[in-house]
Design brief:
Length: 382
C-alpha cells in the first residue's frame, strides 16, 4: 500500500493493470502496462500495445480525494477537447497530436470504476514529444507562454459551462475564510511562534481581496482555464514547437490570470519550491519577459483592458496564495500537503515568501514588460 494525500492506494500487479486496461476501447492487444513516473496526484501508467500502427495509451487512477466528482471532471475534459479538436481540424491540423484524446470505456463512459470504487481513465499517448521540467532560457519560456496562450485562445469561445470540481480554487475570499478558521482553532498550538509569518499574510489581505473582488463583479471576466500551467504540462514536438497542453483534470471556469500567475510562480523561480537556501530563490525577470511575450502573442486577441492591467499582479496573487496555503496547512497540523519532515510546510512557506518579495521588488519592471509587449503587438498588427 502507498500513502497519498491522506488515503491508502493499492499497488496493482501487472496482470491486474492489464485487466483494467481491458475495460477500455483500445486498438490492438495490450502487451504490457508499466508505471510512468511518480505522480503527485494521480497514478499514471503507460499501456503498450502490439502492432506498428496501433497507438500506446496512458492509464490513470484518478485521485478521488482531490477530485471528488470524477465523472464531472471527465465531462469537463470531453467538452474542452471536443471543442479544441474542431478548431484543429478546421485548419487541417492533427487532432490526435495537437489535442489530448480521451478513450471511452467499453460501456461508453469516459471512465471505469473498479470493484474498490477507484476511478480509471485512458487517453492516447502522444509519441515523439519532448517535455521540460524547467524553463531555463527566455526562449523556452516564450514557447511555454505561447502554449498556455494557445490553449486559452482555443477555448475562449466555448460557451458550455464546466462543473466546478474544485470549489474555492484560487478564490481568495474562500482562502481567507479557511485561514481565519484555522487561526482561530490553532489545532496543534503553532500559531504563537508565527507572529511574523502571520503578519506577512495579514499585511497583504486588502490588496489580494481587492483583486478577487474584480473577478466577483465581472470586471475581470471568467473564462475557461487550465489551472496547472507548469511547463511540464506542455508537450513540444521534436523540433521544439508547442503541440498541446496535457493534464486537463483541473480545467475550470475561472480567470485567465490564474493560469498566467501560476505559470510565473513556477517558471520564474530560480530556486526550488521548498528551497532551504533562500539566497537561491528569486524571480527571474528575463524568464518573465519571455513568457509574457509568448503568452500575449496568442492571448492578446481576447483579453480585455482590465485583464492586461492585472496580468503582472496575478504572479504576486498566485504566489501569495501559495504562501498562505502552505502556512495555513502548517498551522493546521499538515493535513493537506504531503510532507517530508515536520517542518516541510514551514520551509515551503518561507521559500515561497522569498519568491513573493522578489516579485514585489521587480513589480514595476514586470508591469513595464506587459505594457511594452502589448504596444509592440499593437504596432505589428497595424
Amino acid at each position: 500500500m502507498e500513502y497519498i494525500f491522506g488515503f491508502f492506494t493499492k499497488r496493482l500487479k501487472p496482470m491486474e493493470l492489464k485487466q483494467i486496461a481491458g475495460n477500455f476501447q483500445l486498438e490492438g492487444n495490450v502487451e504490457n502496462v508499466q508505471q510512468l513516473g511518480e505522480g503527485f496526484i494521480n497514478d499514471t501508467y503507460i499501456i503498450r500495445t502490439t502492432g506498428d500502427v496501433t497507438p500506446d495509451y496512458l492509464l490513470q487512477r484518478k485521485n478521488k480525494k482531490i477530485f471528488t466528482d470524477v465523472p464531472a471532471m471527465m465531462e469537463n475534459i470531453r467538452k474542452v477537447t471536443t471543442h479544441m479538436k474542431k478548431k484543429v481540424m478546421a485548419r487541417n491540423g492533427d487532432p490526435l497530436r495537437e489535442v489530448l484524446t480521451v478513450v471511452p470505456a467499453n460501456d461508453g463512459k469516459l471512465y471505469f470504476q473498479d470493484e474498490e470504487n477507484e476511478f480509471w481513465a485512458v487517453c492516447i499517448f502522444i509519441a515523439d514529444t519532448i517535455t521540460h521540467q524547467a524553463a531555463k532560457t527566455p526562449e523556452l519560456a516564450f514557447f511555454g507562454g505561447e502554449g498556455v496562450g494557445k490553449f486559452q485562445s482555443m477555448v475562449a469561445d466555448l460557451k458550455e459551462p464546466l462543473t466546478d470540481i474544485l470549489p474555492g480554487f484560487h478564490n481568495m475570499r474562500f482562502r481567507f475564510n479557511q485561514w481565519d478558521a484555522v487561526l482561530q482553532k490553532d489545532p496543534v498550538g503553532r500559531k504563537a511562534k508565527l507572529s511574523t509569518e502571520i503578519s506577512w499574510i495579514e499585511s497583504r489581505r486588502e490588496e489580494m481581496l481587492h483583486f478577487w473582488s474584480l473577478v466577483e463583479n465581472g470586471e475581470i471576466p471568467t473564462r475557461i482555464t487550465h489551472n496547472d500551467t507548469k511547463i511540464n504540462n506542455i508537450l513540444f514536438d521534436l523540433e521544439g514547437k508547442v503541440l498541446c497542453m496535457i493534464d486537463l483534470d483541473t480545467v475550470l471556469n475561472s480567470t485567465c490570470l490564474n493560469d498566467f500567475g501560476d505559470a510565473m510562480r513556477t517558471f520564474t523561480n530560480t530556486g526550488l519550491e521548498d528551497d532551504e537556501n533562500l539566497d537561491a530563490v528569486s524571480s527571474d525577470i528575463a524568464i518573465f519577459e519571455g513568457f509574457t511575450k509568448g503568452y500575449l502573442s496568442q492571448a492578446i486577441s481576447f483579453l480585455n483592458e482590465k485583464e492586461l492591467e492585472y496580468l503582472a499582479f496575478s504572479a504576486k496573487y498566485i504566489t501569495f496564495e501559495q504562501v498562505l496555503r502552505f502556512l495555513m496547512d502548517y498551522i493546521d497540523g499538515d493535513n493537506y500537503y504531503r510532507i517530508k519532515s515536520p517542518e516541510h510546510n514551514y520551509q515551503r512557506t518561507v521559500a515561497q515568501y522569498k519568491l513573493l518579495t522578489s516579485m514585489e521588488e521587480k513589480y514595476d519592471e514586470m508591469c513595464r514588460i506587459v505594457r511594452t509587449s502589448v504596444n509592440d503587438l499593437a504596432q505589428s498588427a497595424s
